[in-house]
Amino acid sequence: MSSEAKKLFNIIILGVSFMFIFTAFQTCGNIAQTVITNLNNTDFHGSGYTSMSVIYGVLSASNLISPSVVAIVGPQISMVVSGLFYSLYIAVFIQPATWAFYTASVFIGIAAAVLWTAQGNCLTVNSDENTIGRNSGVFWALLQFSLFFGNLYIYFAWQGKTYISESDRRTVFIALTVISLVGTVLFFLIRKQEDTKAPEDDDSTNEILGESSSARNKMMRAVAAFKKSITLSFTKEMLLLSVTTAYTGLVLTFFSGVYGTCIGAVNRFGSEEKSLIGLSGIFIGVGEILGGGVFGLLSKKSHSGRNPVVMLGIIVHFIAFYLIFFNMPNDAPIAPMEGTDQVAYMIPSKEVAMLCSFLLGLGDSCFNTQLLSILGFLYSEDSAPAFAIFKFVQSSCAAVAYFYSNYFLLQWQLLIMVVVGFLGTITFFTVDWGTAAALTARGSDYSSI
Hints:
- The protein is built from 16 helices and no strands.
- The chain has 449 residues and is mainly alpha-helical.
- The longest helix is centred in the first third of the chain and has 35 residues, at 3-37.
- The two termini are 33 Å apart.
- The relative contact order is 0.14.
C-alpha cells in the first residue's frame, strides 16, 4: 500500500471510529433527559442537562492540558483510552446511580478534550496542504452519519411508547455501549506513518507521533503551545470570532439535548412522542451532512467568500427558532415525566418539528464549516492554539447553556440564541471583511480562498 493510500485509509478509519463512538454518545445525549424523567428509581436524582453542563465545563477546562497528554502518550493510545471513558459513561445508564452518573460526566469531559486534540493531530499527520481539505471533508461526513444510525434505532425501538420502561432503557444502553466499544477498538487499525519529511521538519511530526527524544521536550512544546493560546486569545480577530463560536456552543446544546427533550415531552404527539426524538436526530443529521457537503467539500468551487454562507446559516436558524416558538409549548424543556399538555401558538405539528430539526442541522453546518475555514486561514501557522481556543469557547458556552436549560422556559432559551446569533454574525462579517481588505491590499484574490 502506497503512503498516500495508507494515509487515506487512516482518515477513513478515524472517521468510522468517531462515527461509531458518536452514534452511541449523541444518541445518549439526545435521549438522556427523557430517560431520566422516566426513571422510577427514587434513589436516582440526576439531571441530563446538569450532566451535559458538567461534561462541557470539564471539557472546556481540560483543553488546557490535553495537548500535553497527547504529546506524551501519542494520539492512538489517547483516542483508545478516551473511547473507553465514552463507553463507561453510556454504560452508567444501564443501571443508573447518581454518584456514578456525575463522576462519569467529569471523566468523559476530560476524555473528550483529549479525544478531539488527538483527532486533530491524527488528521494533521495524515494530510498535507493538498489533501487537508479533502480529508477534513471525509472525516466530517463520516462523523455526521453518527446522527443517523442511533436515532434511527430509537425511532423504531420506541415506536408507540409513551413511557420508557426499565427493560427498554437497558436494551438501548447496552446496545449503545457495545457500539461505542466497537468504535474504540477500531482505533487500533490506524497505521503509524513512517517519517517522510526532511530532517528540519521532523520536530512537529515526531511530537504528534510520540517519537520526540524526551518527555521533557514534549512538555516544553506543550507549554509553548499553551502560552501561544493565551496570546492569541486577546487578539482582535479571535475576540470577535469568539462571539460567533459562543453561538455555535449554544446551538449545539439546543439541538443535541434540549430540542429532543421538547419533542419527547409534547403529549399532543400521542404515542409517537418518544420515537420522534430519534426521527428528529435523523433530520438534524441530514441538514448537517448536506451543509457539510455543499459548504465543506465543495468550498473550493465557491467564488463568493464566507459571509453569504454565514448569512444563510443565521437566516435558516432564525426561521427554525420562529417555527419552534410557535410549534412547541413553552414549558417543554422542563416538563415533568408526564409531559406537557400545553399548546403554543398552533397545534403541535410533527411535520413542522421535523422541518425545524433539518433547519437546525443545516444552519449549524453553515457556521461550523466557515468558522473552521477562517480559523485555518488566519492562523495557519498557529492552528493548534487557535483551534484549542475555538473548542474552549464553544465548550464553555455549551456548559452554560446546559445549566440554564434546567430552569429557563423555551422562549428565553430561543431569545438568548437569537441575540447571540445576531451579534456573532456581525462579528464574523467584521473579521471576514477585514481579511478580504488585507488580501486586496496585497493584490491577492480573496474569492479563491
